[in-house]
Amino acid sequence: AQTVTQSQPEMSVQEAETVTLSCTYDTSESNYYLFWYKQPPSRQMILVIRQEAYKQQNATENRFSVNFQKAAKSFSLKISDSQLGDTAMYFCAFMSRNTGNQFYFGTGTSLTVIP
Amino acid sequence: EPEVTQTPSHQVTQMGQEVILRCVPISNHLYFYWYRQILGQKVEFLVSFYNNEISEKSEIFDDQFSVERPDGSNFTLKIRSTKLEDSAMYFCASSEVLSYEQYFGPGTRLTVT
Predict the structure, then answer these.
(1) Domains detected in chain A
(2) Chain segment B1-37, per-residue pLDDT in tens
(3) CA separation for the pair B72, B101 (Å, rounded)
(4) Nearest 5°: phi and psi at B36?
(5) What is the second-level CATH architecture of the domain B5-112?
(6) A14 touches B at CB < 8 Å
Protein backbone atom coordinates (compact mmCIF):
# COMPACT_ATOMS: atom_id res chain seq x y z
CA ALA A 1 0.00 0.00 0.00
CA GLN A 2 1.09 3.53 -0.71
CA THR A 3 1.25 6.10 2.08
CA VAL A 4 2.07 9.78 2.02
CA THR A 5 3.10 11.66 5.16
CA GLN A 6 3.20 15.39 5.71
CA SER A 7 4.55 16.02 9.19
CA GLN A 8 3.93 19.78 9.32
CA PRO A 9 0.22 20.53 9.87
CA GLU A 10 0.81 24.30 9.89
CA MET A 11 3.56 26.61 8.78
CA SER A 12 4.01 30.32 8.36
CA VAL A 13 6.48 32.44 6.44
CA GLN A 14 7.16 36.12 6.03
CA GLU A 15 6.35 37.62 2.69
CA ALA A 16 9.35 37.44 0.30
CA GLU A 17 11.03 34.74 2.38
CA THR A 18 11.58 31.09 1.45
CA VAL A 19 9.76 28.16 3.00
CA THR A 20 10.10 24.40 2.59
CA LEU A 21 7.24 21.96 3.06
CA SER A 22 8.10 18.34 3.80
CA CYS A 23 6.63 15.16 2.36
CA THR A 24 7.68 11.55 2.66
CA TYR A 25 6.09 8.54 1.08
CA ASP A 26 6.26 4.80 1.17
CA THR A 27 5.88 2.54 -1.84
CA SER A 28 7.28 -0.59 -3.39
CA GLU A 29 6.69 0.81 -6.87
CA SER A 30 9.66 1.94 -8.94
CA ASN A 31 7.78 3.97 -11.53
CA TYR A 32 5.53 6.64 -10.06
CA TYR A 33 4.70 10.32 -9.99
CA LEU A 34 4.67 12.84 -7.20
CA PHE A 35 2.67 16.03 -7.05
CA TRP A 36 2.15 19.09 -4.93
CA TYR A 37 -1.34 20.53 -5.03
CA LYS A 38 -2.40 23.87 -3.59
CA GLN A 39 -5.88 24.34 -2.12
CA PRO A 40 -6.65 28.03 -1.51
CA PRO A 41 -9.50 29.03 0.77
CA SER A 42 -11.88 28.76 -2.23
CA ARG A 43 -11.27 24.97 -1.95
CA GLN A 44 -10.36 24.11 -5.56
CA MET A 45 -7.11 22.14 -5.70
CA ILE A 46 -4.62 23.36 -8.25
CA LEU A 47 -1.52 21.53 -9.41
CA VAL A 48 1.66 23.32 -8.34
CA ILE A 49 4.35 20.97 -9.55
CA ARG A 50 4.90 17.39 -10.70
CA GLN A 51 7.90 15.06 -10.55
CA GLU A 52 8.38 11.81 -12.43
CA ALA A 53 10.28 9.28 -10.34
CA TYR A 54 12.49 8.22 -13.23
CA LYS A 55 13.84 11.74 -13.63
CA GLN A 56 16.82 12.62 -11.49
CA GLN A 57 16.50 16.33 -12.11
CA ASN A 58 14.33 18.18 -9.61
CA ALA A 59 11.26 19.84 -11.10
CA THR A 60 10.98 23.63 -11.05
CA GLU A 61 8.04 25.90 -11.82
CA ASN A 62 8.89 29.57 -11.38
CA ARG A 63 9.11 30.20 -7.62
CA PHE A 64 8.30 26.56 -6.79
CA SER A 65 10.87 23.80 -6.79
CA VAL A 66 11.16 20.35 -5.30
CA ASN A 67 13.90 18.37 -3.63
CA PHE A 68 13.26 14.80 -4.72
CA GLN A 69 15.29 12.18 -2.87
CA LYS A 70 14.18 8.85 -4.30
CA ALA A 71 16.26 6.64 -2.03
CA ALA A 72 15.01 8.47 1.05
CA LYS A 73 11.45 8.62 -0.38
CA SER A 74 11.34 12.31 0.29
CA PHE A 75 9.68 15.01 -1.81
CA SER A 76 9.84 18.49 -0.32
CA LEU A 77 8.46 21.68 -1.84
CA LYS A 78 10.39 24.93 -1.69
CA ILE A 79 8.57 28.21 -2.23
CA SER A 80 10.86 31.14 -2.89
CA ASP A 81 9.92 34.81 -2.58
CA SER A 82 6.67 33.89 -0.82
CA GLN A 83 3.63 35.94 -1.77
CA LEU A 84 0.35 36.54 0.06
CA GLY A 85 -1.42 34.51 -2.62
CA ASP A 86 0.60 31.46 -1.61
CA THR A 87 -1.49 31.20 1.56
CA ALA A 88 -3.27 27.86 1.16
CA MET A 89 -3.35 24.24 2.15
CA TYR A 90 -0.67 22.25 0.34
CA PHE A 91 -1.12 18.56 -0.37
CA CYS A 92 1.56 16.15 -1.42
CA ALA A 93 0.27 13.29 -3.60
CA PHE A 94 1.56 10.03 -5.05
CA MET A 95 0.35 8.20 -8.12
CA SER A 96 1.45 5.05 -9.93
CA ARG A 97 -0.08 3.62 -13.07
CA ASN A 98 0.29 0.20 -11.49
CA THR A 99 -2.23 1.25 -8.84
CA GLY A 100 -4.82 2.56 -11.27
CA ASN A 101 -4.03 6.25 -11.55
CA GLN A 102 -5.59 7.02 -8.18
CA PHE A 103 -3.89 9.63 -6.07
CA TYR A 104 -2.76 9.03 -2.52
CA PHE A 105 -2.71 12.25 -0.55
CA GLY A 106 -0.98 13.41 2.58
CA THR A 107 -2.89 15.18 5.33
CA GLY A 108 -1.79 18.59 4.10
CA THR A 109 0.20 21.55 5.39
CA SER A 110 -1.58 24.82 6.00
CA LEU A 111 0.75 27.61 4.92
CA THR A 112 0.19 31.22 5.95
CA VAL A 113 2.21 33.99 4.36
CA ILE A 114 2.53 36.92 6.75
CA PRO A 115 2.73 40.41 5.29
CA GLU B 1 -8.76 27.73 -19.00
CA PRO B 2 -11.15 24.76 -18.81
CA GLU B 3 -12.28 23.77 -15.33
CA VAL B 4 -14.05 20.93 -13.60
CA THR B 5 -17.33 22.14 -12.14
CA GLN B 6 -19.45 20.60 -9.39
CA THR B 7 -22.99 21.15 -8.20
CA PRO B 8 -24.29 21.82 -5.66
CA SER B 9 -21.60 23.53 -3.64
CA HIS B 10 -23.33 22.49 -0.43
CA GLN B 11 -25.92 19.79 0.14
CA VAL B 12 -27.70 19.13 3.40
CA THR B 13 -29.63 15.89 3.69
CA GLN B 14 -31.20 13.71 6.35
CA MET B 15 -29.78 10.34 7.27
CA GLY B 16 -31.19 7.60 5.07
CA GLN B 17 -31.91 9.88 2.13
CA GLU B 18 -30.41 9.49 -1.33
CA VAL B 19 -28.15 12.19 -2.72
CA ILE B 20 -26.68 12.76 -6.14
CA LEU B 21 -23.59 14.88 -6.52
CA ARG B 22 -22.92 16.23 -9.98
CA CYS B 23 -19.72 16.99 -11.83
CA VAL B 24 -18.91 18.27 -15.29
CA PRO B 25 -15.38 17.15 -16.16
CA ILE B 26 -13.17 18.91 -18.67
CA SER B 27 -14.59 18.13 -22.10
CA ASN B 28 -11.70 16.23 -23.70
CA HIS B 29 -10.86 14.22 -20.58
CA LEU B 30 -11.66 10.55 -20.49
CA TYR B 31 -10.76 9.49 -16.91
CA PHE B 32 -13.00 10.62 -14.07
CA TYR B 33 -12.57 10.31 -10.33
CA TRP B 34 -14.34 10.94 -7.05
CA TYR B 35 -12.50 11.68 -3.83
CA ARG B 36 -13.74 12.68 -0.43
CA GLN B 37 -12.26 14.63 2.44
CA ILE B 38 -13.75 14.27 5.88
CA LEU B 39 -13.14 17.43 7.89
CA GLY B 40 -9.61 17.45 9.27
CA GLN B 41 -8.59 14.30 7.45
CA LYS B 42 -6.76 13.53 4.24
CA VAL B 43 -8.30 13.42 0.80
CA GLU B 44 -9.27 9.81 0.05
CA PHE B 45 -9.83 8.12 -3.27
CA LEU B 46 -13.28 6.66 -3.87
CA VAL B 47 -13.51 5.55 -7.49
CA SER B 48 -12.16 6.03 -11.00
CA PHE B 49 -14.21 5.68 -14.17
CA TYR B 50 -13.16 5.15 -17.76
CA ASN B 51 -14.94 4.06 -20.90
CA ASN B 52 -18.29 3.96 -19.12
CA GLU B 53 -17.22 1.63 -16.38
CA ILE B 54 -15.50 1.67 -13.02
CA SER B 55 -11.79 1.02 -13.44
CA GLU B 56 -10.78 1.18 -9.79
CA LYS B 57 -12.54 1.62 -6.45
CA SER B 58 -11.50 1.83 -2.83
CA GLU B 59 -12.84 0.00 0.20
CA ILE B 60 -14.88 3.10 1.03
CA PHE B 61 -16.85 2.73 -2.20
CA ASP B 62 -19.32 0.11 -1.01
CA ASP B 63 -22.76 -0.84 -2.33
CA GLN B 64 -24.22 2.43 -1.07
CA PHE B 65 -22.23 4.31 -3.71
CA SER B 66 -22.62 4.33 -7.46
CA VAL B 67 -21.32 6.43 -10.31
CA GLU B 68 -22.77 7.19 -13.67
CA ARG B 69 -22.09 9.19 -16.78
CA PRO B 70 -25.70 9.79 -17.84
CA ASP B 71 -24.83 11.92 -20.87
CA GLY B 72 -21.77 13.21 -22.64
CA SER B 73 -20.91 15.84 -20.06
CA ASN B 74 -22.05 14.93 -16.55
CA PHE B 75 -20.47 12.52 -14.11
CA THR B 76 -22.47 11.75 -10.99
CA LEU B 77 -21.90 10.15 -7.62
CA LYS B 78 -24.97 8.70 -5.92
CA ILE B 79 -25.17 7.74 -2.28
CA ARG B 80 -28.27 5.58 -1.82
CA SER B 81 -28.90 5.85 1.89
CA THR B 82 -26.73 8.47 3.54
CA LYS B 83 -25.16 7.98 6.95
CA LEU B 84 -23.80 10.57 9.34
CA GLU B 85 -20.26 9.47 8.50
CA ASP B 86 -20.81 10.35 4.84
CA SER B 87 -20.57 14.02 5.81
CA ALA B 88 -17.51 15.27 3.93
CA MET B 89 -16.30 17.36 1.04
CA TYR B 90 -16.57 15.40 -2.19
CA PHE B 91 -14.20 16.26 -5.00
CA CYS B 92 -14.56 15.28 -8.61
CA ALA B 93 -11.48 15.14 -10.84
CA SER B 94 -10.72 14.37 -14.44
CA SER B 95 -7.66 13.65 -16.55
CA GLU B 96 -6.68 12.96 -20.12
CA VAL B 97 -5.97 9.34 -20.90
CA LEU B 98 -2.22 9.65 -21.14
CA SER B 99 -1.82 12.51 -18.70
CA TYR B 100 -1.04 12.02 -15.04
CA GLU B 101 -2.31 15.39 -13.95
CA GLN B 102 -5.76 15.32 -12.42
CA TYR B 103 -7.84 18.47 -12.49
CA PHE B 104 -10.05 18.90 -9.46
CA GLY B 105 -13.39 20.58 -9.06
CA PRO B 106 -14.20 22.95 -6.19
CA GLY B 107 -16.00 20.24 -4.25
CA THR B 108 -19.45 19.64 -2.83
CA ARG B 109 -19.81 19.83 0.92
CA LEU B 110 -22.25 17.14 2.00
CA THR B 111 -23.78 17.45 5.45
CA VAL B 112 -25.85 14.53 6.72
CA THR B 113 -28.04 15.31 9.73
Answers:
(1) 3-114 (2.60.40.10)
(2) 789 999 999 999 999 999 999 999 999 899 999 999 9
(3) 21
(4) -135, 155
(5) Sandwich (2.60)
(6) no
